[in-house]
Specification:
Length: about 300
């Protein structure tokens, strides 16, 4: 990702953070897949940012200009093969230059609406520069690790269970299976013979390990109420049918490893530092909103940040 594109993205951080309640705590409660190693990309040859790649009406277009175009227009080029993106970016940059010259020659740059839009875009770009230089670039590895440790410390311990089940269509079928279990029948064998859950017909109804809330409520409540080695003495009904459940084991759920969630932890640190800066600057600024209804709406929105 080019630096220019990252700056454009950072310009939207206020809106993104305002509308998204980013929480590492929520992530801690979810199962995390191990990160897959990525193949190392070959090192790119150094590029001189001042090297000229084209001239348009005598004006130079440099590698730095082209990189900016590639970054700003990356969404438009994402469907193109990588080898075509550079040419597409250069073509777009040339198109923009010639059209911009026509706009200036026509006096469109003097239009009041255009000047207001340019002022806003400049302010937005400056906003992104402050976020990048004063927030993102000042986040340290120690900050990220501290946030991870804080979230781990603040996350209540959660148990997860290893369970099996036998799913049948009627309560009577489930009661008959429980009666066989009471008589000493093997749970796994009965599951292979009777369960209507396709995934459980060859593994004794094994559901693996799962935590609270991962199953439908009725199943979840019954399963977590059982002791290790016990099975449900009454059929458990859910939207899928009637279950007989057996708990094989219980354990404390392990939190995700730091390397698996460090990117999310970094985003949480950036969010907090960003809002701390906004709060400080807004507190020092004199902001007046004459429309009482609009002011109330803004206050309500910002109170949730």
């Amino acid at each position: 990702m080019s630096l220019s594109f990252r700056r454009a993205s950072l310009a939207s951080l206020g809106l993104a953070f305002g509308l998204s309640a980013l929480s590492l705590s929520a992530l801690m409660a979810q199962e995390t897949k191990p990160a897959q190693p990525e193949a190392a990309a070959p090192a790119a040859a150094p590029v001189d940012p001042n090297a000229v790649v084209a001239t348009i009406n005598g004006e130079k277009l440099t590698e730095a200009d082209l990189a900016l175009a590639e970054g700003e227009l990356s969404q438009q080029f994402q469907q193109l093969p990588p080898e075509q993106r550079r040419a597409a970016a250069l073509s777009a940059a040339i198109e923009i230059r010639v059209m911009a010259k026509k706009a200036v020659d026509s006096g469109l740059d003097k239009d009041a609406d255009f000047q207001r839009r340019m002022a806003f875009l400049q302010q937005r770009a400056l906003h992104g520069e402050v976020v990048e230089k004063e927030v993102v670039n000042k986040v340290t590895d120690a900050d990220v690790r501290a946030r991870y440790d804080q979230e781990i410390a603040n996350t209540p311990p959660v148990n997860e269970i290893h369970a099996r089940h036998i799913l049948v269509k009627t309560k009577e079928e489930a009661e008959a299976i429980i009666k066989q279990l009471d008589g000493g029948a093997d749970f796994q064998k009965l599951a292979n013979e009777h369960t209507s859950d396709p995934s459980g017909k060859s593994n004794g109804g094994d559901l693996g390990w799962f935590g609270p809330g991962q199953m439908v409520p009725e199943f979840d409540k019954a399963a977590f109420a059982l002791d290790v080695g016990k099975y449900s003495k009454e059929p458990v009904q859910s939207q899928f049918g009637w279950h007989v459940i057996k708990v094989e084991d219980k354990r404390a759920k392990q939190p995700p490893a730091f390397d698996d969630v460090k990117d999310q932890a970094k985003q949480a640190v950036i969010r907090d530092k960003y809002f701390a800066m906004v709060k400080e600057l807004r507190g020092a600024a004199k902001v007046e909103i004459p429309d009482a209804k609009l002011k109330a709406a803004v206050d309500t929105l910002e109170s949730g940040k």
